[in-house]
Amino acid sequence: MAEIATNFPPQTYSSSFFLNSLTDEEKNVVGGGSDGTKRSDNTPLLDCFISTMTRWAVFVIIVSIVCTHHVTEAMECAIPHEQKTRFFDTIEHYQGNKIPFSPLRGNWEGSNVEFTFNSIDKLSKNNFISEDSHSIISLKLSGKQIKEVHEGAFISLTCLRQLHLDHNNITTKLTRNVFQNLEKLEVLDLSSNRIEILKDLTFSDLLNLQTLNLSNNRIKTVEVLAFTNLTRLEYLNLGRNFIRTVFDELFEPVPNLGTLILSWNKLWDASPEKWHGLGKLQHLELAGNSLNRFDPSYNFSFFAVKSLNLSFNSLSMLNTVAIRRHLPQLEVLDLNNNPWFCNDLEAIIRDLNDSKVKFPSMNFSTVSVHGIACSEVSRFSSVGTTEGVTATTVKNNVTWVSKDELERYVERKIKHSNEGLNNSIQSLRAFAIFAFALLCVFIVFEILYRTNICGVIISKLKGGNELYVDDNNIENFRLLHR
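RESULT FIELD:
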């Protein structure tokens, strides 16, 4: 076959362009006459088909990769239909395990892990790397006398749903890297340890956490960003710690919180009504905090509260109007073990009866209102003294009270009197300031009037040398006459 010379530059062209550039004779040589012509007529369709197929191929590959990723992830984190627990004698025994933890693989014996040893001082980085360890669903290390938890200790447990570290001696300042790679964790139990501070971003990697138990520790400080990213948290227990202050913004990152337990802390001066971000809170426990006030105000943020525990505090007054307005869903209100006076307590219960609120009772005292213990100071016997009285008793229609109760009653009356006096003093002070300011303004105007400074200023503003005369001033007429 003779060579066919081409005169176009060395570029890449489609088959249709190449054939259309040939003469009829050359087309016959290349394509065999009419068949070659038909082929040239069909080449645009072929090019379009190839181009379209390329795009679809890319699309199919991408979809396949995404689907494969999700399927693989689902298989890796498969939840078993039944809960089975595997026990290991030592960490080394666990690390040497060859039986898979995934229920989708053969020889499956369980996805929950517990240890039978009694103590271990610390959990080091990569301690829990083992055959198929990423498929473990639950890890229980309760009561093992653990003191330290190093960063990355649980890094291989990517499918872990529950982590129990309660009843240990953990004193480590927990950081976010301690819980690295635990994005699927739903339950974290750190109760009954020796944790003293919750640092910012400690739990920020636990995006799916729903239950967090930090009760019975030694926590004094909870930094404002400690609960960042816990948007799915529903239960938070901070009871029996030493917390004195709660930042107003502390609970903003937990909008789905349903239960908050802060009982038995040191929140005597706290203001729960200022806490933000608790719009879905239903159960609030504030017992045993020596609270001397609870007054939900206009910016009270948790209107869905159904049960409120204010027992074992120092409350002697309660704003029932604010409670009815800002706690419309309230069903249970625990007021036991507060220094109530019976008249006040009876008024509180009467005011809240319309809202069908229930009041749990302990019934341990003979003097009570609806089963809630209270003290009544009505009159005292003229004979004897209250010095030796240790409990509230009723005898011969004379009400005896303890010295402490009497002192609390007197202090309360003095407090109310002082509050009224302070309000009166503030009102009087405000009136005095206003009167003094008014007097100063009057004196200034009087000086300006008598010295005719206003007239001089007006004359200057007019820009002339003409003497300004006040027609209302008789002295000016006398001077002009002279």
